[in-house]
Amino acid sequence: MRAECAVAFIASVAFSSITGAAGVSPSISVSASSSATSAALPGGLLPVDQAFPLRATRVDGRLVVRFDVVGGHYLYRERFEAAIQGKEAAISRLPTGKVREDAFFGKVAVFDQPVELSIGLPAAASSGEPTVVAVRYQGCSERAGVCYPPVTRSFKVAGDRVELLPAETQRPGLGTLQRRPGTP
User: With contact defined as beta carbons under 8 Å apart, do 159 and 128 qualify?
Assistant: First the structure.
């Protein structure tokens, strides 16, 4: 049985939805420069969306999601999952990653640099019918010595439009953070 990475639910972050319009690239972005995400939490811990800013673009019948990984952080390769309309979906074009020894999972592949994943969209999404694509991921902060809980971000895709849906987050106190083994 695999243990979940440390319970490190970070204070929720306000999100805005950005929708592609005529003449505008159909992509969304959660920006690390947003005033809602600009401050680090105690111990230098960044909010999850600042540590792993992401954006999604519809390209040739696929949703391409790019994660920009901030220095001192990494994402677990095997913790990426996707679903379309609530049903499991395949992720393709995911690089191999770097192998590292992890205190929680042993030998694992991680990404400490930007990474893109690609998810095939159903034909209905191209015709303009709204399709919800959820992406789940998990990463850690080496700087703060904690792991973030798994995070799910959902996108509504309809024709050329891609919209980030509001995040569903909990707001427990920072006292629920757990340190990674071997950190002070």
Answer: yes
Residue with tokens 């920009």, as numbered in its chain: 68
Task: Report the distance separating Cα 58 and Cα 56, nearest Å.
Answer: 7
Mean pLDDT, residues 22-43 taken together: 45
Nearest CA to 147 out of 114, 110, 117, 104 is that of 104
Query: What is the CATH code of the structural domain delimited by 27-167?
Result: 2.60.40.1250
The closest of 127, 178, 122 to 7, measured between CA atoms, is: 178
Q: What are phi and psi of 37, to 5 degrees?
A: -120, 10
Q: How would residue 11 be classed by pLDDT, with cut points 50, 70 and 90?
A: very low
pTM of this prediction exceeds 0.90? no
Is there a contact between 111 and 77 (Cβ–Cβ < 8 Å)? yes
Assign 151 a pLDDT band (cuts: 50, 70, 90): very high
133's tokens: 């694509």
Other beta carbons within 10 angstroms of residue 29's beta carbon come to 16
What H or E segment, with its residue span, contains residue 94? none
- What are the Cα distances from residue 153, in Å, to 2, 55, 81, 160? 22, 10, 11, 19
Asked if 94 and 43 count as a contact pair (C-beta separation under 8 A), the reply is no
Instruction: State the residue for tokens 């204070």.
Output: 11
